[in-house]
């Protein structure tokens, strides 16, 4: 992972609170756990585990993986359950925060993160369920795609995952909050300028930097 992705993940970690149950998506979200001190946050994976922690290479159990098929460890007091129970937790509103990566996100904070027309990618996984069931949704993403085009669009050109809006968007340039149906720019990331954000954001947003919302 790049330093830019680490910076995004570190900022996302600041949004988490003690005793929350948190589900981390694939990609940048998986890095968030590196910036949580202690064991006050409980990480959930939709394939059936609560209490996920990092694991050293010499201690890897090939049968113990997260939903992205990456090796994980078990924290003190970790619990296991089948996938149906795990999704029951998500759909029942028992996951406090979902941190998700995206392909695109629109000015109504609706996410596209599971399909690119004409291409084969990993698939939707638990994203639809997490978007509907999690109490709070945080998006972590680079501000632009590899071709330099904005990933924060007026309207997504890829299929949206659900109509549920994300609550917070964290990129390498900025932090946006979705408040009363509008994106608010609330923070610039280190080294970023307002001019950069304006130039690389297609979606409409309100500059709330001075108000500190």
TrEMBL record:
From which domain of life does this come?
Answer: Bacteria
Q: InterPro entries of this UniProt entry?
A: 3-oxoacid_CoA-transf_B, CoA_trans_fam_I, NagB/RpiA_transferase-like
This protein is called Acetate CoA-transferase
Q: Does the keyword Secreted apply?
A: no
Q: What GO molecular function annotation could you give as one example from this UniProt entry?
A: CoA-transferase activity
> What family does the database annotate?
Belongs to the 3-oxoacid CoA-transferase subunit B family.
**Transmembrane region positions?**
none
Matching entries from SUPFAM superfamilies are given as: NagB/RpiA/CoA transferase-like
Q: List keywords of the entry alphabetically.
A: Transferase
PANTHER family linked to this entry = KETOACID-COENZYME A TRANSFERASE (PTHR13707), SUCCINYL-COA:3-KETOACID COENZYME A TRANSFERASE SUBUNIT B-RELATED (PTHR13707:SF57)
């Amino acid at each position: 992972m790049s330093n830019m992705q680490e910076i995004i993940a570190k900022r996302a970690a600041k949004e988490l609170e003690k005793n929350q149950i948190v589900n981390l998506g694939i990609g940048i979200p998986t890095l968030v756990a590196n910036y949580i001190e202690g064991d006050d946050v409980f990480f959930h994976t939709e394939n059936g585990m609560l209490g996920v922690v990092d694991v050293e290479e010499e201690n890897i159990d090939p049968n113990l993986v997260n939903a992205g098929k990456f090796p994980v460890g078990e924290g003190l007091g970790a619990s296991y359950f089948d996938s149906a129970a795990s999704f029951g937790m998500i759909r029942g509103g028992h996951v406090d925060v979902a941190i998700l990566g995206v392909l695109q996100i629109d000015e109504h904070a609706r996410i596209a993160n599971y399909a690119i027309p004409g291409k084969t990618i990993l698939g939707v996984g638990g994203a639809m369920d997490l978007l509907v069931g999690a109490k709070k949704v945080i998006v972590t993403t680079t501000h632009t795609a590899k071709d330099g085009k904005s990933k924060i669009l007026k309207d997504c050109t890829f299929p949206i995952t659900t109509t549920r809006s994300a609550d917070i968007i964290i990129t390498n340039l900025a932090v946006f909050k979705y408040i009363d149906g509008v994106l608010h720019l609330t923070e610039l990331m280190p080294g970023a300028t307002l001019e950069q954000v304006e130039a690389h954001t297609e979606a409409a947003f309100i500059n709330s930097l001075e108000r500190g919302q």
